[in-house]
Amino acid sequence: MKQLAIFSVFLMIFSNGINAQTKKELDQKAIKSMCGCYEVSFNFAETFKYSEDPNYTPSTEKHDSGLEWVELVEDSEDKIVLQHLLIVGNPASPKVIKHWRQDWLFENTDLYEFNADNTWTYNSLAPNTVKGQWTQKVFQVDDSPRYEGTATWVHVDGISFWENTTPAPLPRREYTKRSDYNLTMRTNKHVITKDGWLHDQDNQKIIRKKGEDDKILAEEKGLNKYVKVEDSRCQAALTYWNEKHKFWSLVRSKWDEVFGRKKDLHLNDKVEGKALYQYLFSDEITPQKKEIDKTVESFVID
């Protein structure tokens, strides 16, 4: 009887280990399934407004589309890096634009939370609060930070999804036109579908002032649909990345060093009248670590 009890306990532990391993593998599969060539539709509409200004003008409804390649840059046990590359222009001679990047870290305890006005607050999370979770870290086109959030991938009824709410900077489509709010509270939901994936968003446009409660100016719905197509349609992106991946590896390495300082982060919006992406996208910058490090560091405010 005692031997049977011991065997039962062993079997339970073994089974739990298998289930945990299978769950993590399902998570990894879901994340990596976002790679490939996609026709993408970008859709955003302001839904509710709370401004007391009678002359308040909501953002124009946005509908756009494009072709995008999602490159698997890194694939390790606890970290998966996906780089988005946007393909625009005439298909006969397309132009490739390095787009956003998303890193996925398993049971990550280092989180940079956006706190308005180009500042991020560093938070060290307790390991027990992130058990089984994946942190999604989203970066700008120049690999500077945007937003980060941690949550559990869910696999139920044949559907895989991940959802988190976290503060974020204004997206480019907004900050180039709006200055009446300074933070977006983003609820991001990534849903894997049979023909690609969805990036579903419910966003609040927030006015954040020191010493005051956040004020919601308006709300917004976003839905980006990624429909998988033949990889051959994204050949231009593959060619671009083959030529540029070493350069961007150096850029990521420098940012990793900055994040590794594990302290609050404040960045310059511009240095000598130019944004960071303008320096890094310029043909004038050389793919040398020393120059890249100096350029990125010039935007970091101690």
- End-to-end Cα distance, whole Å, is 66 Å
Instruction: Summarize the biggest pleated sheet.
Output: 11 strands, antiparallel
- The main sheet orders its strands as 8-7-4-3-2-1-13-12-11-10-9
What is the arithmetic mean of pLDDT?
93
The count of DSSP E runs of length 2 or more, i.e. the number of strands, is 15
**How much of the polypeptide forms β-strand, as a percent range?**
35-45%
Continuous helix count: 5
Sequence stretches where pLDDT stays below 50 over 5 or more residues: 6-18
Overall geometry comes to globular
Give the ordered list of helices and strands.
HEEEEEEEEEEHEEEHEHHE
* Radius of gyration from the alpha-carbon trace, in angstroms: 21 Å
Number of domains: 1
**Portion in helices:** 10-25%
* Helix vs. strand class: alpha+beta
